[in-house]
Amino acid sequence: MPIEFLCTECPKKLRVPDDSAGKKVKCPGCGHVQRIPTPEVAPEEPPLPPPEPVTTRPLAAEEPNPFAENTANPYQSPSASASTSSDYRAPTGGGMTEQTAKVLLTVPVAIILVAQAVNLLLSVLLTGFAIFMLVSPPNPADAADQAVVWISLASACGIGSILSIAAIGFLITVLFRKSYTMAWVGVLLGMIPCGAISNCPTLLLAILGFTAGIWAIVLLCLPEGKAQFR
Fold this sequence. Notes:
Elements: E1 3-6, E2 13-16, E3 24-26, E4 33-35, H1 80-84, H2 98-135, H3 143-175, H4 180-190, H5 193-199, H6 204-221, H7 223-226
Antiparallel strand pairs: 1-2, 3-4
Region (Disordered): 34-94
Transmembrane segments: 103-135, 147-172, 179-198, 204-222
Organism: Blastopirellula retiformator
């Protein structure tokens, strides 16, 4: 390996063969004659000692193996077979069954259907009564003034009858699970309180139909309720 060093008079770098150590050389830059230095040799590091062999002691016949499967170690985790055969496993799956969802949707629809049937009956009776009073007024002298009242009553009851007939028709399709859209229309028509208040002498029928309608809407929004119309 050639020897490299700097001139002592100028910063020129000189390079000579490795066997020229101790000889004199002339700098080609400035002409200064100087002795070639002897390169320093780094001491070699002693080799690392070989690793000591690891000795293992075999287990005695009477000593149990703590990593064996069949052991009485109280800190060992239960195996997969033990966990699957347990009687206290958490139930898999969630939500209600198809039969439960069917019953929970049928009950409110049946309640609304009965309420609309009563509404229809009362609307028809009141419409017939209003027409009869319009044709045969009790006081002929005030027939013109009473005619406005009976015509208004007959019109309101007639509209209530039409709404009840439409609601009953749509609700019947819900019982047979024919159409999801028709189910929504039937439930919403059955919840209209104006027909029940106009055609029923009490407010109980309207409250009953509206409450059952909310129940049916909740079931229709659930995935289990939607799945019955597919």
